[in-house]
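Example record used in the benchmark description.
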Amino acid sequence: MEQEVQEFRLISNRIGAVVAVLLTGFLAEGNLRAVFSRAPHKPGWLISLDSPPLPVWANVVLNIVFYIYLVWAGVWFCRRTRGKEQVLVAGFFISALLGLLSPIRALASQNAVVVIRSIQAIGMTVATFAALLILLKSPGFGKSDTKSATRLLLFLGAFALFAFVVGAIMYFVF
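Model output (structure tokens):
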């Protein structure tokens, strides 16, 4: 008796692809802004340690359980997806998990925080470009439209990477 193995598709239609592009683009913009802002880092737990109904130890346990759940979810999604979706999920979860390390970042130097924020921004930018490629490959785009749009997207990606490197150099030098 053969069982049909269905491929897990995280983004199965154009509306899902548009939502993925908008979500990752919004988060990438916030991460890129955080890299180049000189605002001090404000560390904090996901669930505040001084929330009234629970003692501190219970809030710490809840935070740790939630972080472990997010790591498990990231690994689960990365193993179930393929191709561009896997790149999107990996970039998203790298950025999200580094963002959740804010209690640990409080112990690091300002330069280490900038490096962590940079990795977050790069991860989310990669996820955004993967979502754009998924949108371009969705039904409704002709082959010639997809080729030109992919070339434009690669050019914009190279330009964004160049701008990111120049901005990082300016940040550390000046």
